[in-house]
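Good morning N.,

You mentioned wanting to compare the apo and holo forms, so I went ahead and generated the holo version with copper (II) ion. This is what I fed in:
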Amino acid sequence: MRHPLLALALMLAACAPAAPPAAQAQVANGIEVRDAWAAPTPGGVDVAAGYLTIVNRGREADRLVAIESARAARVEVHEMSMDGAVMRMRPLAGLDIPAGGQAMLRPSGNHLMFIDITQPFVAGETIPVRLQFERAGAVEVQLPVRRGASHGH
Ligand SMILES: [Cu+2]
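and this is what came out, ligand included:
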């Protein structure tokens, strides 16, 4: 006969909420990427927003110089700022990440902008992205698509 405590433990494990898909950090070449995700897109929209935090674990400053994805014609880093009551967005040429520092791309701040997406981003799927750094080289990351507080575009 099965131990009653074991049965209870199994029941509790089965009831535990699933871990959020974006929780794992992705590390390569001294660059750690965490909290990566992208927002689902409504039909008929050809841009999508993506978010992530880049941590530079190296001893030298690095710079994100290019981004690409098989799911979009191009990917830009956008800076968001308020001009009085008007929200403005402009593409940045690159993103500096100091040694031991980090750059956060998140809703209502800087973000990744996927332009001319090949098909809508659907919750539950994963978007492959290649980040190109001056020093660290290419870093491949996966952005799970999920609902969250995105920004209007
Ligand atoms: Cu944007």
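The first strand starts at residue 26 and ends at 28.

Happy to go through it together on a call whenever suits you.

Best,
F.
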